[in-house]
Amino acid sequence: MAELFHHPFWGPVVRHLNSFPIDRTRHDHGAAREAARRLRHGRCVGIFPEGGIRTEDKPLHAIKDGAALIAQLTGAAVLPTVVRDTHQFHDWRRWFRGGRMSVTFGYPFCIIARDRAAARDVLVAQLLKTVELE
Q1: How far apart are CA 92 and CA 94, in angstroms?
Q2: What CA–CA distance (Å, rounded) separates 35 from 94?
Q3: Residue 18: exposure state from Cβ atoms within 10 A (0-12, 13-18, ≥19)
Q4: pLDDT per position in the chain (134 positions), as tens?
Q5: Which of 14, 21, 29, 104 has the fewest Cβ atoms nearer than 10 Å?
Q6: Which residues contact 58 (CB under 8 A, 6 or more apart)?
Q7: CB within 8 Å of 108: residues ≥ 6 apart
Q8: Which whole-number Å values give the CA distances from 59 to 1, 46, 104, in the listed order?
Q9: Is the pTM of this model over 0.90?
C-alpha cells in the first residue's frame, strides 16, 4: 500500500521490512517490475491479490490480475495463503486482548496459462482450495 510509505510511523517500519510501495488505484507497472526483479533474484514476494484486506462480504473472486500475471511471467511458484480473523485488529483497543488470527497454507503451484484471464482463474481456483483446507 503506497499510502503506508507516507505515514510517519508505518513508513519507516515498512521500509525496514524491505517492502516496496504499490499504487492500488491503477495498474502499477513499476511495482510489478520490482516484484518480478526480486523473484528473478530468488527472493520471496508476498502479494495480497485482493488489493487489500478481504472482508467476509467481499467474494474471493474479486481478486486482481497482478499476482497471477507476475507468477505467470516469472515462472515463480505460488504458495497460496489465507489469513483469517484479521477484522479484530482494526480496533487498536483489541490489540492487547490476545486476539487470534489463523493462517492456512495451501500447496505450492506454478501458473501455466495462455492468457491473463486463464492465469487469474488458476490462482482463484487454488485459493479456493486453500480456503477449504481448514
Answers
A1: 5
A2: 33
A3: exposed
A4: 889 899 999 999 999 999 999 988 888 899 999 999 999 999 999 988 877 666 565 666 577 888 899 999 999 999 998 888 777 767 777 777 777 788 999 999 999 988 888 998 999 899 888 888 76
A5: 29
A6: 50
A7: 77, 78, 79
A8: 21, 20, 18
A9: no
